[in-house]
Amino acid sequence: MVTIKDVAREAGVSVASVSRALNGHRGVTPETVERIREIATRLRYVPHVAARSLITRRTHTIGALLPDLHGEFFSELIRGLDQAARARGLHLLVSSSHDSIEEAATALRAMQGRVDGLVILSPRVDAPFLRANLPETTPAVLLNSAVRSPAYDVLNVDNYGGAYAMMRHLLREVGHAHVAFVSGPAANFDARERERGYRAAMTHYAPGVACDVVPGEFTEESGYAAATTLLGRPDRPRAVFAANDMMAVGCLYAFKEAGLRVPEDIALAGFDDIPIARYLTPPLTTVRVRIADLGRSALERLAERLDATDGSPNVADTLGCEVVVRGTCGAELTNASPA
Fold first, then answer.
1. What pTM was computed for the model?
2. CA of 221: how far to CAs of 45, 51, 243, 320, in Å?
């Protein structure tokens, strides 16, 4: 069996340097890290995880608790988490709560002792739940969470600002007078913030026009159902803003099924900028969330917390997002109109 000493001897470095290189720690030049990893791969060196854990009291594994594993948003988020974990020599253990508070508690208990820290994205998780189900010694980074506690790092997307910016684009820059909003799940923090941004922009840019909110569930099916409801009205809206791209995909299908042209007959916008958004026909105008970067940032924040020895306080940060104008919102039609 190849040992870490064999790798060190082949690379001409110390055992400590091999350990730092393979575990993603600082103190080794990038060139040396690359050489050590190449030699470890060639010699088929596999670290003895159990022995290493006994020495370091670390599993070198990060847990990720997500509400679901289906859909492009979560696949992009996991991709970002995994890339950052691999860069630091860490493993990733992913579990889903299936949007259930009971399953979230079960998943957290199952990962205790198996991970060094957790990235948690769950709309149903609040501070009392975390205190009851997460040991104080286990660091955690919360994603898109309303929790404000000095015990946890929090990394949120600017859902309110992104929705407000999209509505400003649709109302002021494109000129749509009636914009309906397909909301997300009522208990979801992202959904609430996006709806809050929609309502604030309507108040500011369309005073006197009533908000028009149709419920959705962040799924293609709920987007299709919401669009069908809107199309059944005598006062069909001129534009629809879906609170995520998956619902926008469902809306687009319903509009085309009804024989409507997008954006000529009805405009559409989404939120998230999932990879498929740019490949729809027409391409989807949306609010870009750099989803993989969100995962990378969360993992790196957690890894820094694990390595920290100064007891620095936990912080809450917000990641910005931006409006991406494509073919569904009607901006090109507005620009092509005579002055």
1. 0.80
2. 48, 49, 14, 28
